[in-house]
Amino acid sequence: MKKYACKYVVLRFSPYSDTEEFANVGVLAYSKIHNVFLYKLDTIDVGSRVDHFFNIENKTFYKSTMSSYEKELNYMRNQVISHSMSAESAFEQLVQPRANLLSYGERRAVLTNDITVTLEKIFNRMVNHVPEH
Questions:
Q1: Does some domain include residue 71?
Q2: Which among 12, 26, 100, 110 would be 20 to 30 A from 125, CA to CA?
């Protein structure tokens, strides 16, 4: 199978902007050639790792932040699926800098045979800290 390029960013949660600390909590990726937009968020942890790292007293804070953002991501993914927007446009619109609890790392590109598998690998490495074999 022929490899193709996809771009991705790592989603960061940073509740205290003054400390500039963050936790990786998701990955967004797209393939321009296939017009596919995908994402994966840290929903299994449901914030326990993040709450512990940042010592957040309100245990629903992270969960509600991620739930709200997931709705925005679903909306954008549905726009791509319905061909109302390209995957590239959705990706670029989402990763614009914003003053928010959620931000993105640098944009990166990777060659892949399967964007879904690649998204999973990147998520496991960057969010779950699972080393590649």
A1: yes
A2: 100
Residue indicated by tokens 């490899």: 3
| 76's tokens | 């954008």
**Tens digit of each residue's pLDDT (9 = 90 or more) over 22-60:** 989 999 999 999 999 999 998 776 567 777 778 777 778
Distances, alpha carbon 64 to alpha carbons 67, 69, 87, 108, in Å:
5, 9, 26, 28
Decide: helix, strand or coil at residue 1.
coil
Let me know the angle formed at the C-alpha of 32 by 26 and 35, rounded to the nearest 5 degrees.
85
Residue 89 lies in a domain: yes
Within a 10 A sphere around the Cβ of 64, how many other Cβ atoms? 11
The C-alpha angle with vertex 23 and arms to 47 and 27, in degrees rounded to 5, equals 90
- Distance of alpha carbon 117 from alpha carbon 4, whole angstroms: 13
Domain count, the chain: 1
Global pTM value: 0.88
